[in-house]
Amino acid sequence: MNLATRNVRMALFGATLPMLLLAVYMALVYAPSVSVGFAAPNAQRIFYFHVAAAWVSYLAFFITAGCSVVYLKTRSMAFDTVASSSAEIGLVFCTTAIITGAIWARAEWGVFWRWEDMKLFLTLVLWLVYMSYISVRGMVAARETRGRISSVFGILGVLCIPLSFSANRIWAQFHPTVIATSQGSLQPAMLAALMVAVVSLSLFYFCVLMIRVDIENFHHAVEELKEKLGDEADE
Amino acid sequence: MASMALQIARKDLLVEFRTKRTLNSMLLFSILVILAFRFAFSTTKLDAAVVAPAALWITFILAGMFALSAGFAREKDQDTFQALLLCPGKRSSIYLGKMLSSFVLIMLVELFSLAAMAVFFEYDFAGPAQFASVLVVMMLGTLGFVGVGTLLSAIAMNTQMREVMLPVLLLPLIVFTIIMPAVTATSRLLNNESILDVSAEIRLLITFAIVYIVAAIMLFGYVIEE
Amino acid sequence: MRPMNDMMYLYVAYTIIWAGAFVYATYLHTKQAGLRQELENLQSRVKSNEPGK
């Protein structure tokens, strides 16, 4: 690894932890308590990381789709590695969003889940799509075939995401509409806390992505060397 | 591209109608599923219009998956896939041809299932307008799910457990985009609402049919490379 | 009573998020370090094989 890459990595890792701590402070202390319209004002603070986790999972899935497109065009394995790593990490963030959402829902509505809520439903569907993406990768042995077909599926999968945002408007809505409407706009302090949460979780995502991609690359290199040593031993 | 697609569709349908193996299995399967739903709800006082739409669409999707996997499995098992790839013209014609033949087969089964539903759930259609509206919704929904299903079936061919992979890949992509609007629309139509009342759902079905078919045309070539 | 219940949900959610993040990051880091070590071992074995050829 050359010096420039190592410096970038160090900078990224170094920036992430302070940002995360700042985000937690802002969510728990800085942001004002919202008593109007919410039954559970304290639990409402879950919102910052719940929404941030959901958005970072969308980011991860878009990156998967983008790398899938580039992979299909260039056939460079690096893009396939990033695509699959991003999908796995996206799944982790999506799981976090669903779990925190369920906890907040329990505090706010009294139930962990509401099937009528389209946004919840869609997030679950997205979770299933990426679970399928990962399982299809496990079902194909040949690297090149695996890259090709999972790229196609990854591209199809990402088509679900834009629908998430309009779903609230199409069907029955229980999910709080986050983006500002004239009645329920976010106060500046809350918006700031949300943005910091999103940025810090995104940084965390990139750190984890780099480590995950390393793992894939090391794994392939190890396999190659084992094969080479196996050949040499046979000679 | 269109003519080659039609040729492939015609060939597939001819082969299928010679033996009618897949079609017969699908017809039998669909009647059994409708009956299963009927029996399952027989002790509850149920309005046909409540259970029927969901039962119908679940039947359509499950039976449809037979047709989708049969389309490519037959080619692969009988080694005719190479010959298909050697045909002149774009790869997407193969996709369109397969999609059309699956669509025709599945529509036949759907019409049959609709009749079965009317009989077993004792449902009377209010008139030709209502029947036509339901038919429109069925065709749009089927177009979407066959559109994406054909591509996914080609993907599943490459994996170790084909039959299991197709539903795993297909269901998450269609459960919200196709099944939900289709069942909602069908339910409302069977409740004697007019087709104009379900325009939102129909728009959604049309959008996704177009999106999936266009995406499939663009991506199909990548899946069946050798 | 309500404020107390509220806070509990907040604690649970934040604990899950941060404990989960920590465990995940640690797991990946350990795996990466292990693979890196294995790679280095294999690389030195390949190097030591070469002069002997």
What's the total helix number of chain B?
Answer: 8
> Any idea what the shape of chain C is?
rod-shaped
Mean pLDDT of chain B, nearest integer? 87
Greatest contact between two chains: A-C, 35 and 30 residues
One letter per element, helices H and strands E, the order of chain B comes to HHHHHHHH
The structural domain count of chain B equals 1
- For the secondary structure, the number of strands of chain B is 0
Helix residue percentage of chain C: over 70%
Describe this structure in words.
- The complex is a heterotrimer of chains A (235), B (226) and C (53).
- With 235 residues, chain A is mainly α.
- Chain A has seven helices and no strands.
- Chain A has helices at 3-30, 46-74, 77-109, 118-138, 143-158, 160-170, 188-234.
- The radius of gyration of chain A is 21 Å and the shape is globular.
- Chain B has 226 residues and is mainly alpha-helical.
- Chain B has one domain (2-223).
- Chain B contains eight helices and no strands.
- Chain B has helices at 2-19, 21-40, 48-77, 81-86, 91-120, 128-157, 162-190, 199-223.
- In chain B, helix 1 (2-19) crosses helix 5 (91-120), helix 3 packs antiparallel against helix 7 (162-190) and helix 6 packs parallel to helix 8 (199-223).
- The mean pLDDT of chain B is 87.
- By secondary structure, chain C is mainly α.
- Helix content of chain C is 96%, strand content 0%.
- Chain C has one helix spanning 2-52.
- The longest helix of chain C has 51 residues, at 2-52.
- The chains are: A mainly alpha (235), B mainly alpha (226), C mainly alpha (53).
- Chains in contact: A-B, A-C.
